[in-house]
Design brief:
Blueprint (H helix, E strand, L loop, with lengths): L29 H8 L17 E4 L2 E4 L5 E2 L2 E2 L4 E2 L11 E2 L1 H23 L5 E12 L7 H16 L6 E7 L8 E9 L1
Parallel strand pairs: 5-6, 7-8
Antiparallel strand pairs: 1-2, 2-9, 3-4, 7-9
Helix pairs in contact: 2-3
Pfam family, one: YjgF_endoribonc
InterPro entries: Endoribo_LPSP/chorism_mut-like, RutC-like_sf
Protein name: Enamine deaminase RidA (YjgF/YER057c/UK114 family)
């Protein structure tokens, strides 16, 4: 995923997927053009880390597996999200602001998974639901603000079709000690 250095903590502008690259095959869609206007490109779909597939179609809906904030195949940060004023954890922490940016990365990765099964993101008619998981310090209660990173990005690139129902859940730990994970339910034509 290509992002400006200021958009994703710890990432350099040169470290991401070029904005003109895209997952799968086919010409760039209007959705991908809007991503490019934001300085973002679709990455290759992340390989599953267990026994599942990145996305499946059922009827006219795509269900993505949970997507982690991989950038160039790597997690840029690990640990629990904490504002730093709660808890007494010795574990690595990620600020809510950084976690919000990582939630946006998860959303882009989820769009890549959607494209891998429907071929063209312009076929999306609605993001039905976003489910976001935040690896949280036990006292952290700002999960909705973190998952706003995914929601706001989907609104920017899909307009009205990006408005959705949502859950934002705090959890004790996520796979690979990721700070955030996002999955989508997408309707398409």
């Amino acid at each position: 995923m290509s992002t400006p250095a200021s958009a994703v903590p710890g990432a350099s502008a040169a470290s991401g997927t070029p904005a003109n690259s895209s997952a799968g095959t086919g010409a760039s869609s209007a959705v991908e053009q809007r991503l490019a206007e934001l300085g973002l490109g679709l990455p290759e779909v992340a390989a599953p880390v267990a026994a599942y597939v990145p996305a499946v179609i059922s009827g006219n809906h795509v269900y993505t597996s949970g997507q982690l904030p991989f950038i160039d195949g790597q997690l840029e940060a690990t640990g629990k999200v904490s504002s730093g004023t709660e808890g007494a954890s010795d574990e690595a922490t990620v600020s809510p602001e950084a976690a919000k940016q990582y939630a946006a990365v998860c959303a882009v990765n989820a769009l890549a998974a959607v494209k891998s099964v429907i071929g063209d993101l312009d076929r999306i008619t609605r993001i039905v639901k976003v489910v976001g998981f935040v690896s949280s310090d036990p006292s952290f209660t700002g999960q909705p603000g973190v998952i706003n990173g995914a929601s706001e990005l989907l609104g920017k690139v899909l307009g009205d079709a990006g408005q959705h129902a949502r859950s934002a859940v705090g959890v004790a730990v996520l796979p690979l000690d990721s700070p955030v994970e996002v999955e989508l339910i997408v309707e398409f034509a």
